[in-house]
């Protein structure tokens, strides 16, 4: 299990980074990215702490621990510059909070994210065909999520991505201990979104390729 979208209490999660990582290890995770919510108010505070914590935790736990960030509800016009700042501060995985149907995300957030140097567009809701094509062109992974509410559009995202050749990734968007799942549970959720067993294998390969691409 590789999970590239989780949260600690450095934003709105319930767990310390150390507890999150320990629980993930027990669930059989191979790698976990801690991608706490950031905007202009806290980006320069959160990311350096995650970089430090992840480096220390990886010394002691038998899995990769990756510092990241999720740009959340920021003005669409700010996404590109903030994604660049996140990289400069040490975020190895940059996620953008997509236009989920269960939150009032600003219109154009998906589009502006896909035009920016990010890795993953999280829970992109009713993403358009043109946006999926842009994700494919720019090598950005579209998320299939285990998160309640956000997962309501998994089927739509999966259908368009498969039809148009965009790459997908599976993440939990963990906020609390009960959100961490086993690889079998992830498989069930992905199959429920209409993906095939072959597609499931590609989800894992896409996550592995991203980790390798970032030199993690």
List the helices and strands and how they pair.
Blueprint (H helix, E strand, L loop, with lengths): L1 E5 L10 H10 L4 E4 L2 E2 L4 H18 L3 E8 L7 H11 L3 E5 L11 H6 L5 E3 L6 H10 L2 E5 L8 H11 L3 E4 L11 H10 L4 H17 L3
Parallel strand pairs: 1-2, 2-4, 3-4, 4-5, 5-6, 6-7, 7-8
Helix pairs in contact: 2-3
Can you walk me through this structure?
The structure is a single chain. The chain is an alpha/beta fold. It has a single domain (2-213), classed as Metal-dependent hydrolases (TIM Barrel). 43% of the residues lie in helices and 17% in strands. Strands 1, 2, 3, 4, 5, 6, 7 and 8 form an eight-stranded parallel sheet that branches. Helix 2 packs across helix 3. The longest helix has 18 residues, at 43-60. It is globular. The protein starts with a strand and ends with a helix. 49% of the residues are buried. The model has no long low-confidence stretch (mean pLDDT 96).
Question: How would you summarize what this structure contains?
Answer:
This protein is α/β, with parallel strands linked by helices. The chain has helices spanning 17-26, 43-60, 79-89, 109-114, 129-138, 154-164, 183-192, 197-213, and strands spanning 2-6, 31-34, 37-38, 64-71, 93-97, 120-122, 141-145, 168-171.
């Amino acid at each position: 299990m590789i999970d590239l979208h989780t949260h600690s209490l450095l934003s709105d999660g319930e767990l310390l980074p150390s507890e999150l990582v320990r629980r993930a290890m027990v669930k059989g995770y191979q790698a976990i990215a801690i991608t706490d919510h950031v905007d202009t108010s806290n980006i320069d505070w959160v990311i350096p702490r995650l970089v430090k914590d992840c480096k220390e935790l990886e010394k002691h736990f038998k899995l990769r621990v990756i510092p990241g960030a999720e740009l959340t509800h920021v003005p669409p016009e700010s996404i590109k510059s903030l994604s660049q700042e996140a990289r400069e501060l040490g975020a190895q995985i940059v996620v953008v909070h997509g236009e989920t149907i269960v939150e009032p995300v600003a219109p154009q957030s998906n589009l502006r994210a896909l035009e920016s140097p990010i890795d993953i567009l999280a829970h992109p809701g009713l993403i358009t065909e043109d946006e999926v094509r842009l994700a494919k062109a720019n090598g950005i992974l579209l998320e299939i999520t285990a998160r309640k509410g956000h997962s309501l559009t998994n089927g739509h995202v999966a259908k368009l991505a498969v039809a148009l050749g965009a790459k997908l990734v599976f993440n939990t968007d963990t906020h609390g201990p009960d959100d961490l799942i086993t690889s079998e549970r992830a498989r069930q959720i992905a199959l429920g979104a209409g993906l095939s067993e072959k597609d499931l294998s590609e989800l894992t390969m896409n996550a592995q390729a991203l980790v390798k691409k970032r030199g993690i």
